[in-house]
Amino acid sequence: MIWRPFTQEKTAPPPVKIIRGDGAYLISEGGKRYLDMISSWFVNMHGHAHPEIADAIAQQAKTLEHVIFTRFSHDPAEQLVENLKPIVPKKLSRYFFSDNGSTAVEVAIKMAYQYFQNIGDPDHKLFLSLEGGYYGDTFGAMSVAGTNSKYHATFSDLFFKTIMIDVPEYYDGVEFIEAKENEIIRKLEKMLGEIGDKVCALILEPLLQGSFGMRLYRAEFLERLVNKVREYGILVIFDEILTGFQRTGRMFAMNYTNVTPDFICLSKGLTGGFLPLALTITSEKIYDAFLSDDKRKTFLHGHSYTANPIACAAACKSLEILRRKETVAKVEEISEFHRANDIPKALKRRSVGTVTAFDVESEDLANFVIDRTWENGIFLRPLGKTIYIFPPYCVNVDDLANTYDIINRHL
Ligand SMILES: Cc1ncc(COP(=O)(O)O)c(C=O)c1O
């Protein structure tokens, strides 16, 4: 009866029914334990069924479960903004809620586009983005991932125009990286010379392109890119949906750079993986362009579950846990484990913070290795020829070591 996401139902095995979560583990109906080494699509930062987040949710549910977020506000949303303020760049002071990663991106794209309409500069209609990005499965998010996206090609006739920039992929032992970066910036400069005044915004996943294949590029390149497009008045959107909340070893991937975008998009880990919630955070400059007596300048966008109080309460608790000394130490421990441990047959090994990834020679080999980890109760999910580990922060080092060991034995 159920139609699963991202699943070819004709060939995929039937799903395993999970009845309980316990930290980094999922427990099936038959009592088998599965180590969730991809944090259930990058959301469960603190593992499953964290009792403190569960309690915060229960308490909020008994007080106020939901209310329309137009004429009304509520403490959990206001508190969440207060809690985020110390970790979000000061320049980004306006918080717009929605309820998943794709909608956080749609909001940023629409705000950027309407900003130029509202300030009377409506020719800025094009988007720029990095080849191999992934921003979600709604039409705006698909459009800015470009027509080459392996996920969305079927719909490409319906996309709005986005110009793609190459990515100088970075991995252990990469050669001539600066020359590659210089070449891309040179090409970008030439293109902007021709159409820079027609571009609305650049969107990218800072440092780590997740769903394309856990591909890294350098912070130096990111800074140069942002500084270059800014010369043309182009707005910048950082999708930190996957990279946010210590995933890359810093609170946000942008913290590896000296640049601040005009928008950041947050979701996934925001509630510690308990409930869907998202934020698009932007500056006063953007916000002010929507203030008007002319109603057409209003941002006419919203979702039924905007700023759901229960989700906001979960996010407040998740952030509190994230900022504890013990969690920060766990992030460092996982990061150090990736740095210190070799996968000798890995191709293009790359690691940033709590994420490590590598390629293997073929998709068949990737699937073979993943099948062996599955037999050993470890849940990983390959991305084509790429295998990656993206653990919840509560994972213990023995479980990490066992995962490396099984991978190494079958590569
Ligand atoms: C970087 C990035 N942006 C956006 C999204 C879309 O988020 P959602 O699946 O919540 O719509 C994802 C999902 O994997 C993502 O990795």
Descriptive overview:
The protein has 411 residues and is of the alpha/beta class. Helix 12 crosses helix 13. The chain folds into two domains: 120 residues, Aspartate Aminotransferase, domain 1; 269 residues, Type I PLP-dependent aspartate aminotransferase-like (Major domain) (Aspartate Aminotransferase, domain 2, 3-Layer(aba) Sandwich). It is 36% helix and 17% strand. The mean pLDDT is 97. A seven-stranded mixed β-sheet has the order 4-12-11-10-7-5-6, with helices on both faces. A four-stranded mixed β-sheet has the order 1-2-3-15. The chain is globular and about 60 Å long. Strand 13 and strand 14 form a beta hairpin. The site of pyridoxal-5'-phosphate (PLP) has 14 residues, from helix 4 and helix 7. Pyridoxal-5'-phosphate binds next to helix 4 and helix 7.
Question: What would you say about this model in short?
Answer:
This protein is of the alpha/beta class.
Question: Could you give the topology of this structure?
Answer:
Elements: E1 18-22, E2 25-28, E3 33-36, H1 39-42, H2 51-63, H3 75-84, E4 92-98, H4 101-118, E5 126-130, H5 139-145, E6 162-165, H6 177-195, E7 199-204, E8 208-209, H7 210-213, E9 215-216, H8 219-230, E10 235-239, E11 263-266, E12 278-283, H9 284-288, H10 309-322, H11 325-340, E13 347-352, E14 355-359, H12 363-375, E15 378-379, E16 386-389, H13 397-410
Parallel strand pairs: 3-15, 5-6, 5-7, 7-10, 10-11
Antiparallel strand pairs: 1-2, 2-3, 4-12, 8-9, 11-12, 13-14, 14-16
Helix pairs in contact: 2-10, 3-10, 6-8, 12-13
